[in-house]
């Protein structure tokens, strides 16, 4: 490792409050999106992993949202949208880059698929998951332009946007009522894949399964996370299918990607305002990656959050469910059911396919 990398690695961890001790000088175990590391031995590998994640932050100078007089910056209200972008972009890396979870970024990388994924999220009106598309989707369902989203809202909006016929198709399933309904998920992936086998845009695997993102909005307490759920959150961060979780108080959302055995969460922070950079016209992606990771105590986590998992194949989905069933305790954060327990007449649940954007504070407390 060269001297510049050593210096950067030594300062990459930002502690919360007055806790600014460098993890490069300590011995501990940590997990980042399903991969285990140990410090100080793995410090450079940790840095390489963190900087390879997409980092979407507040931006200024993009085209107005919603018309000529619309906002050209999202500082103060777009943080949860940025966290949702980071989480979903991570799934696209898993699904469509050959290295998947082990992709490692280098400045101005030449991989055309990488650039295609990044350009789906930049702040242009017609980019698939741009701030413009997210805000406009929310606005069409009653959210004011410039209004903060909670974790349930961004999950539902991303689900709706992902249902469009993009060149690189995925399914986004948002679990409701703290329940994963396996039959619904299989039907979603398998039926859609059968339809798309006749199209040229099909990117389904040989097993007939379209890549799947599962998002589970939860409220794990009233004002603070119930401590009995912390070990379950840690379990989720250790699973290879994890996409981490998004959460936070209004105007203060984070993308949580792992944890330390010292009971600290690791997260990427979108609360940095950067100038809009159009990567469709300039190969400048430096500002879309971050060389620092932040940490905070589990006790500081807001109870309103959304977990997410990525399953490229049906085998990965089956493995995820098996691990969850095997390791979640008798009082889990969410339930896993074969069929919809609320659907006694074998009808589609009345709200699973409906975008409801005013329910971020209406979760059942588990």
UniProtKB/TrEMBL annotation:
Q: Name one GO molecular function term.
A: cysteine-type endopeptidase activity
Location in or out of the cell? Cytoplasm
- Catalyzed chemical reaction(s): [protein]-C-terminal L-amino acid-glycyl-phosphatidylethanolamide + H2O = [protein]-C-terminal L-amino acid-glycine + a 1,2-diacyl-sn-glycero-3-phosphoethanolamine
Where, if anywhere, are coiled coils annotated?
Answer: none
Q: Where is the Peptidase C54 catalytic domain?
A: 45-321
Could you tell me the Gene Ontology terms of the biological process aspect for this record?
aggrephagy; autophagosome assembly; mitophagy; piecemeal microautophagy of the nucleus; protein processing; protein transport
Q: According to the UniProt entry, what is the EC number of this protein?
A: 3.4.22.-
Q: What is this protein called?
A: Cysteine protease
Q: Which species is the source of this protein?
A: Rotaria sordida
């Amino acid at each position: 490792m060269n001297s510049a990398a050593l210096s950067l690695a030594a300062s990459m961890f930002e502690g919360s409050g007055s806790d600014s001790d460098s993890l490069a000088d300590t011995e501990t175990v940590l997990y980042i999106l399903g991969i285990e590391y140990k410090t100080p031995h793995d410090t450079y590998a940790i840095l390489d992993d963190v900087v390879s994640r997409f980092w979407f932050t507040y931006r200024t100078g993009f085209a107005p949202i919603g018309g000529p007089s619309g906002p050209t910056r999202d500082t103060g209200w777009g943080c949860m949208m940025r966290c949702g972008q980071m989480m979903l972009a991570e799934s696209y890396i898993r699904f469509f880059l050959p290295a998947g979870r082990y992709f490692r970024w280098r400045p101005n990388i030449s991989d055309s698929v990488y650039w295609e994924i990044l350009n789906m999220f930049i702040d242009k009106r017609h980019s698939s998951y741009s701030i413009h598309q997210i805000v406009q989707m929310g606005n069409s369902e009653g959210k004011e332009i410039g209004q903060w989203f909670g974790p349930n809202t961004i999950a539902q909006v991303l689900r709706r946007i992902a249902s469009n016929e993009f060149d690189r198709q995925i399914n986004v399933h948002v679990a409701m009522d703290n329940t994963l309904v396996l039959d619904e998920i299989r039907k979603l992936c398998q039926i859609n894949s059968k339809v798309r086998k006749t199209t040229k845009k099909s990117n389904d695997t040989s097993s007939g399964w379209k890549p799947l993102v599962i998002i589970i909005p939860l409220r794990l307490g009233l004002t603070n996370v119930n401590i009995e759920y912390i070990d379950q959150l840690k379990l989720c961060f250790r699973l290879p299918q994890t996409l981490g979780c998004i959460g936070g108080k209004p105007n203060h959302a984070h993308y949580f990607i792992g944890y330390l055995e010292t009971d600290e969460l690791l997260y990427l922070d979108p609360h940095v305002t950067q100038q809009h950079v159009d990567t469709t016209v300039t190969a400048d992606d430096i500002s879309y990656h971050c060389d620092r990771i932040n940490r905070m105590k589990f006790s500081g986590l807001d109870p309103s959050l959304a977990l997410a998992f990525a399953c490229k194949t049906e085998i990965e989905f089956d493995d995820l469910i098996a691990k969850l069933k095997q390791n979640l305790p008798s009082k889990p954060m969410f339930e896993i059911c074969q069929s919809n327990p609320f659907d006694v007449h074998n009808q589609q649940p009345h709200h699973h396919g409906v975008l409801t954007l005013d329910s971020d504070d209406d979760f059942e407390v588990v």
